[in-house]
Amino acid sequence: GKEQSGFVQSIGFEMYCKILEEAVEEMRRGVEVEAETVEEKLVPGRPTDPKLDVDFDLLIPADYIPYELERITIYHRLVNFTAVEQIENLKEELIDRFGQYPPEVELFLMAIELKILAGKLFAERIIVNERKIKLIFDQAVEKEDVFFGLYMPRMMEQALAKVRFLNQKNLGVEFEAKGKNKQERMRFAINLLHYILAES
């Protein structure tokens, strides 16, 4: 648990995911996994694959799922999810197989949901911390009518929303974070993105 947490912190979540994906591929050495890897580049229903930046470690504790291969397999599935429904199904599966999951796993699942939603908004990166929720958008967003016709107006409805261009090319939007703890802040961010996407 502590060693895994330190490892994630030292190399970052994105790199950790890449290492995990490679480990799963090496362990399975199956055609099916190779096919999944190729398909990752073109995921229907998620226009971008944003980087996620949060102020806590994302991990599955070893005392919840003691078998390393099981943990790696679940990590691999999570980072390749493209729909919120997949997360809901995994929640049921985890409870069935391993019992009620701890707060660390809940945060991980929330982070993946946030990443999926941010991808639907054409985000290149999403940052969530105690003070702010920040979305940095892919340059291709200028070609998306739905972004300026629906998503941007809904963002601008939010109190204290700040919109600006970053590096003279990427559009960024910043919101004030709300919540007394990590779970509340993540839930607030998820609900906000659902609203912007007109899913709530």
Automatic annotation (TrEMBL):
SUPFAM superfamilies: TRCF domain-like. SMART domains: TRCF (SM00982). Gene3D superfamilies: Transcription-repair-coupling factor, D7 domain. InterPro entries: TRCF-like_C_D7, TRCF_C. It holds the Pfam family TRCF. Residues 53-154 form the Transcription-repair-coupling factor C-terminal domain. One of its GO terms (biological process) is DNA repair. This is Transcription-repair-coupling factor C-terminal domain-containing protein.
